[in-house]
Fold:
Amino acid sequence: MPTSPTSPTSPTSWKINPEPVTDAAVDAVMRQYFTEMGQRVLGRTVADAEIRAVLAKDPHRDLTPPNGQFLVARGDGNQFLGCVGLRLLDGAPGTAELKRMYVHPAGRGAGLGRGLLLAAEEAARRLGAERMVCETNTQLTEARSLYTRYGYEETEPYEGHGRADRWYAKEM
Structure:
């Protein structure tokens, strides 16, 4: 799995490895993720009931082998810095969906978004995917920039899980 650059200018070093998405700590991370997404996309604080509803509609429990993977980036002190999941899509052979990509503020500025994206693509290929799709939102400019920088092109909606208004795909 990818590791961080060894440059002395990197704010922290990190390693990306698969971890069980069923770990209790993942629920806390997902709450951080959805809290930030609510602030950025909705422009307001997201209520706990809203987070539970989103997770019920689009759970992350399927980001597990044999049809998915959940990857976590941790720093030298084992602190959580970011995560990304992927799952093979039913009804779309050879296609994996990028899910729950999140870089904690403590991990930003070290190339971790790139590292997580590349690790997810590598994991998707190991699962047999030849294409990766993802959805995002206009307000998430960093994500949109990252996807296009690494070969993703805007495409038509493929499944829809919420307030996405931008969809991307990449042949791998």
